[in-house]
Amino acid sequence: MKKNKNIILIKKPENKLTPNCFSLVEEKLNLPRAGELLIKVKLLSIDAANRAWIQGATYRSAVSAGTVMPAYGIGEVISSNSNRFAEGDLVIGELNWAEYATKPDKFLTKVNKTTDLIDLLTYAGIAGLTAYHGLMDISKIRENDTILISTAAGSVGMFACQIAKLTGCKVLGLSGSADKCEWVESKLGIDKCLNYKDPTLTKNLKEVCPNGFDVYFDNVGGSLLEKILYLMKMKGRVTCCGAISQYDVGSLTPPRNIPGIIITRRLKLEGFIVTDFYNKKNKALKILSNWHRSGALKVFIDKYSGLESAPEALINLLSGKNSGKTIVEL
Ligand SMILES: NC(=O)c1ccc[n+]([C@@H]2O[C@H](COP(=O)([O-])OP(=O)(O)OC[C@H]3O[C@@H](n4cnc5c(N)ncnc54)[C@H](OP(=O)(O)O)[C@@H]3O)[C@@H](O)[C@H]2O)c1
Questions:
Q1: What is the mean pLDDT of residues 229-235?
Q2: Residue 323 neighbours by CB under 8 Å, 6+ apart
Q3: What is the percent of the chain where pLDDT is above 90?
Q4: Which pLDDT value is given to residue 1?
Q5: Residues lining ligand 1, judged by CB closer than 6 Å?
Q6: What is the pLDDT of residue 30?
Q7: How far apart are CA 186 and CA 172, in angstroms?
Q8: pLDDT tens across 60-114, in order?
Q9: Could you tell me which residues are beta bridge partners of residue 326?
Q10: 3-class SS at 77?
Q11: CATH code for position 167
Q12: Exposed site from 146, 155, 248, 290, fewest CB < 10 Å?
């Protein structure tokens, strides 16, 4: 009987995620029941959200200990028990950290075989669309806005930086080391990137932008968000895209003086999930594709090989070792 290699979340971490939270196990391959597909996994998207799913329920249910780790990815249909998909089709959607995933067809989308698969996990996928809709539909950025973007070197961040620059904004980024800040400035062409771990961050930001920020594109939350709220212009817009500082910790840390600083600065904070903009997706993809084709929107990937590397890839992303989009190729 054919076997399948799965990476199981064997326990939830009390603090930071560690390799011993996972175990690679060989199990019997589940054949597809009615409405299901058996998929050979080709590419896995490693996302900050994977850690949030382990912590608790988000826009999807929490991942329970003892179950296979789910992840967005692309694979090939090996066996179909659905009238929507045939053997040999490529599909994208929620798969697993596994060689093979058996999934219901209703959550999967067929991929055109001529499409570059990396595109679908980068600018033409969740990362690019999150950056685009966050900036255009929530931040409502305009030419000459001064915008600050956190996790600037990461997958959503690198697209947010480039899109804001292409829209004519003055763009500042935040990243976790001098080397990554240099990478952001040289590869993404923004005006300045500063190390958020620097104890003089507030002073450093004030030196570069003495009048403050029109927009903060926040991927971090926590105490960094608190610091930045004090640097916003009157009526500034804060786009709450993610809260990575709160995903890989045992207990949550607050931003203090909420809503005090929001009231006195007349700030607007608004959160979103990329799927909120499903109806506007095609227009966004057209714009993102045109920018990419012209060379104006660049893609950087941090690629790992082999299923076994998935835990390391996620742990490295959480500790800031990645620059660009983290992908595991099987
Ligand atoms: N709203 C939505 O629909 C949506 C969709 C996709 C993603 N997101 C959000 O976008 C954010 C980025 O996700 P991603 O998957 O693209 O990951 P990513 O940016 O590629 O990687 C995460 C980065 O976060 C930074 N980081 C880690 N811990 C941090 C901390 N305590 N404080 C500040 N920065 C920290 C690290 O870089 P440095 O420390 O070196 O800067 C790391 O490289 C996440 O918050 C995620 O939840 C939201």
A1: 98
A2: 153, 154, 180, 183, 187, 300, 302
A3: 97
A4: 65
A5: 47-49, 126-127, 130, 151, 153-157, 175-177, 180, 196, 219-220, 224, 241-245, 272-274, 317-318, 320, 322, 326
A6: 85
A7: 13
A8: 999 999 999 999 999 999 999 999 999 999 999 999 999 999 999 999 999 999 9
A9: 302
A10: strand
A11: 3.40.50.720
A12: 290
Is residue 313 within 8 Å of residue 328, measured between CB atoms? yes
- 257 in a domain, yes or no? yes
Domain check: are 138 and 106 in the same one? no
- 176 and 73 in one domain? no
Q: What distance in angstroms lies between residue 154's CA and the mean position of ligand 1's atoms?
A: 6
What's the rounded mean pLDDT across residues 319-328?
97
Residue ranges making up the domain that contains 25:
3-122+299-329
Helix (H, G, I), strand (E, B) or coil at 312: helix
Q: In this predicted model, what pLDDT tens digit does every residue of 200-220 receive, in sequence order?
A: 999 999 999 999 999 999 999
Q: With respect to residue 114, please indicate whether it lies within any of the assigned structural domains.
A: yes
**What total number of domains does the chain contain?**
2
241 and 263 belong to one structural domain: yes
Q: Looking at the domain assignment, is residue 284 inside a domain?
A: no
Residue 220 and residue 131 in one domain: yes
Token pair 């780790």 is found at 69
Ligand 1 atom at shortest distance from the alpha carbon of 325: 20
168: in domain: yes
- Let me know how long the chain is: 330
Between CA 98 and CA 90 the distance in angstroms is: 16
One-letter amino acid at 257 equals N
